[in-house]
Design a protein that fits this description.
This protein is of the alpha/beta class and 477 residues long. Helix content is 31%, strand content 20%. The strands form 4 sheets. A 6-stranded mixed sheet has the order 2-3-4-5-6-7, with helices on both faces. Strands 11, 12, 13, 16, 17 and 18 form a 6-stranded parallel sheet that branches. A 4-stranded antiparallel sheet has the order 1-10-9-8.
């Protein structure tokens, strides 16, 4: 992931991609999905990876609810791939710091948001591949960029995308790419030649390479790299027979593991312990009458997270408190066992979109995609379709409401726990602002927020409060 990813003028494209070369339609709206839509048979598409099968997986999450600085980031931390995780962290930290320094002005509404989401390309044998997609909509145009990260378990080394190609074959490889790109709408021949002229720049330019299910190679080039910015993202797909002579030994293993994935991923980690999943079970339906007693609804956004959500469930069980979790779809996919544990313990599971985009900046179709995909993941984990959603950043309008049958939920007590990573401060904020029938915003991705919960439960219980889900609070008022 390079500094060019933050060019504010880069436009996101959403058009269909052909099997060889494609550019999107320049609609200028963020892509809500981890993968662009590509035409053609399923064998030419990236193979789906179930992240819940990756032992010991943790998802690194962070987000802001500040109107002048809205951001959400996520990337995976896989046991054994520390060098790869460190590289992703360095890149994402740089992007976030740049966004904050150039775009975040205290007290002023932001013109856009920053979103970094992840998608697994392959997690099989001794090969791990991940794509990070960055959308920065704060500049003059909407900006999307992508980068793939690779880990070679056999060598115990992080690999750049271009390392899928053997050193001696890179000239032939880039010549084939140029041939496919030349003549495409929006591609400037001079820019194209200049982009590939310096071999030292190729790794930065060709930083999104991945294999398709049939062993072909897919190359994605960010907007503005080989053509006019308005022309958008270009994708070149080369079939298996064409790329076979060019692949490095690692590239051949990555291709094989993508085509024929094994059931396990082993990157040489000394151990891959999975976080314990609580087994608390609700004894009965909640019969609290909020017309007769003081009720409060604690809500937790952005999870599930390991081990934070599991720790939170233990705290809640000790005080027999029920809460509502507004879960992010890509985290549900990674940790469905924690979502099942939430529901089994009598808590409510709501929808917080697939990867925390500002829904008001998406098309109705994109809003529906974000919410429907997350609802499907929640139902797969719990057996029950959610009825509530919390719009990321609390951003909701008539367009968003019309795109879903889910009921929106905001809040009246903001702990700002995303800003203040201080358990005592978070607890005291809730205690001081708690009122009858309040809806409290917290995040179970932060250990400090989870650590604040015992004091909140203890103190407010002593003050006569009962902890209920949002739907229960609404139903009994």
């Amino acid at each position: 992931m390079r500094s060019r990813f933050l060019l504010p003028s880069a436009l996101l494209l959403l058009g269909s991609l052909t099997l060889t070369t494609a550019c999107a339609n320049g609609s200028g709206t963020p892509d809500p999905s981890p993968e662009p839509v590509q035409a053609g048979p399923s064998s030419t598409l990236p193979r789906s990876v179930d992240p819940s099968k990756i032992k010991g997986l943790e998802i690194v999450n962070d987000s802001s609810e500040q109107s002048s600085c809205p951001f959400a980031i996520s990337y995976p931390d896989v046991p054994g791939a520390k060098a790869m995780t460190a590289t992703m962290k360095k890149d994402v930290d740089w992007i976030l710091a740049s966004f904050r320094s150039s775009r975040c002005v205290s007290g002023s509404p932001s013109a856009g948001e920053l979103n970094v989401s992840h998608h697994f390309l392959v997690a099989s044998g001794d090969v791990l591949g991940v794509r990070l997609t960055t959308v920065d909509t704060s500049g003059a145009g909407n900006g999307q960029s992508t980068s793939t990260y690779w880990y070679d378990g056999e060598a115990g080394a992080y690999r750049q995308a271009l390392e899928l190609i053997a050193d001696g074959s890179r000239n032939a490889f880039t010549a084939a790419l140029k041939k496919q790109l030349r003549g495409r709408e929006g591609v400037d021949p001079t820019n194209l030649d200049d982009a590939f002229a310096h071999t030292t720049h190729r790794a930065g330019l060709l930083d999104d390479l991945s294999f398709t299910a049939d062993g072909g190679l897919r190359v994605q080039l960010d907007s503005g790299t080989v053509g006019a910015i308005a022309a958008g993202t270009y994708v070149v797909s080369l079939d298996k027979a064409t790329v076979a002579p060019w692949l490095s030994p690692f590239g051949r293993r990555a291709q094989k593991q993508t085509e024929h994935p094994s059931s396990d991923l082993d990157l040489g980690a000394p151990s891959t312990p999975s976080a314990a999943v609580p087994t608390h079970t609700a004894s009965a339906d909640d019969d609290t009458d909020c017309k007769k007693v003081k009720c409060i609804a604690l809500t937790f956004d952005d999870g599930p997270a390991a081990p934070e959500t599991a720790n939170l469930l233990d705290h809640l069980a000790r005080d027999k408190a029920r809460v509502t979790f507004f879960t992010v779809g890509q985290n549900v996919a990674a940790h469905p066992e924690l979502v099942r544990a939430e529901a089994r313990a009598g808590h409510e599971v709501g929808n917080h979109s697939w990867n925390h985009h500002d829904l008001t900046k998406l098309t109705p179709e994109q809003v529906a995609y974000q919410l429907d995909r997350t609802s499907a993941a929640i139902k797969a984990a719990t057996g029950k379709t959610p009825t509530l959603f919390r719009p990321p950043y609390g951003a909701v309008n008539a367009k968003v409401k019309a795109a879903t049958t889910l009921s929106p939920v905001l809040w009246d007590v903001d702990t700002e726990d995303w800003k203040y990573r201080d358990s005592s401060k978070v607890a005291q904020t809730v205690i001081a602002k708690a009122r009858r029938n309040s809806v409290v915003l917290m995040h179970d991705i932060h250990p400090t927020s989870v650590a604040a919960v015992p004091e909140i439960l203890r103190t407010l219980t002593a003050e006569g409060f009962h902890f209920v889900t949002v739907s229960h609070l609404r139903a009994t008022l």
